[in-house]
Fold Serine hydrolase.
Amino acid sequence: MNGYQFNFSTPEQQGVKSEAILEFLEAVLQCRTQNMDQDFHSVIIARHGAVIAEGWWKPYAKEMQHMLFSLSKSFTSTAVGLAVSEGLLTVDDLVTDYFKDECPAPTGYLAQMRIKHLLSMSTGHIVDTMGFLQEREDGNWVKAFLNVPVEKEPGTHFLYNTGATYMLSVIVQRVTGLKLINYLQPRLFEPLGIINPTWEECPMGYNTGGFGLSIRTEDIAKFGQLYLNQGILNGKQILPKEWIAEATCSHISNGSDSNSDWCQGYGYQFWRCRHNIYRGDGAFGQYCIVMPDYDMVVAITSGLKDMQIPLNLLWDHLLPGICEDKLPESAAYQELMDKLNSLKVLLPEGDGTSEITEEIAGKCFTLDENEDHMESISFTFEKDTIHLHITACGKKQTLNAGIGTWAAGYLESFDKKVPVRLTGTWQSSTTLLIQCRLVETPFAKQFRFTFNKEGLIVETKGNVGFEEPGWNRILGK
């Protein structure tokens, strides 16, 4: 596929101090924990249209797609902007005009809701509608959204509402006859050179809109560059500059904390930030950050508990190192390249073997009922690898964990093969710790196996989640 490609440059050629990027990376490293809940997976920094720094924390890699969560919303907004430019709809259209079969006689504030209110998270709802959509027994998310009470006048109240973005996806499909992803394919993805994007669907077959898109980090950066370039790539107007101005300005207040980048105003599925910066972002640390005053784009994927931290680090360390003119070559540049080429997540601490491996090798442990649906597990050991033989949901599979390194594999889950990387270490003579990273997502999980006379204790914990992860305990015999 032909499409937009970045040029590459040294930071100094584009007026950025390598020392500033190094300081940012060092600050990132200081945030890491053994709980895996403040892990960066990738970063790309581009200035004046050229990539000046890019890196992936092993085992994450350049070619991998990454789940975007709510960063998907900014792409849905873009689809709406393209549909507006083609004369298929306007942001002032009433939402219910597109759902006459589902809602033939709207009343109250629902009847006043317009597309611009979906875009700006100002629908008038007082709770995020997404839960109602996902709980709908017949799978009709559209009816679920239309049945949620609208208790405030649309346009007067900000409430982050993923269900609103879903409705934008439905509207785009209804006016174009194409699923959101298919509508964007020739208009956005192909011109940007975005390869093999995937997008989750609702039970009715509409793309979920507010989440579910997966692309590479490079693709996130290209998307940001399109917005920074006022919709122009390779000399062609891909997206109207009028839409970019409209989508990225503040349409509604979302708080008064001057130090929070969640309280600087909200656009059409974009967040305003301090320093005249704006971003699209997704849960657990997926970012497309556009800095018009600095002619810079930053793309980040991660598995983060606190999403304000990366923004603070960028403002504190990167911004002071940006200059108007080119800078002389710096010895720090080679140090920066070495740092970027050696990035890696923390490996768990411990020993490579235990005195009990021969005793437990091949022994099958039957597990109590658990949320991971594991029914039984056994272990075999080689010098550099731990083999986990698991039966889950009636299916047998073997996962390999590297010792002191990461082993690649696939987790078979509900007829899907999910790419994973695993590592293992002995924390004591009887306790084996396995880390499993779902490398195309923000998620990772720890499995702590403690062997005793009664059998096996399995403790599991995720890194991040919409609820605070905790250790779950499973007994095995």
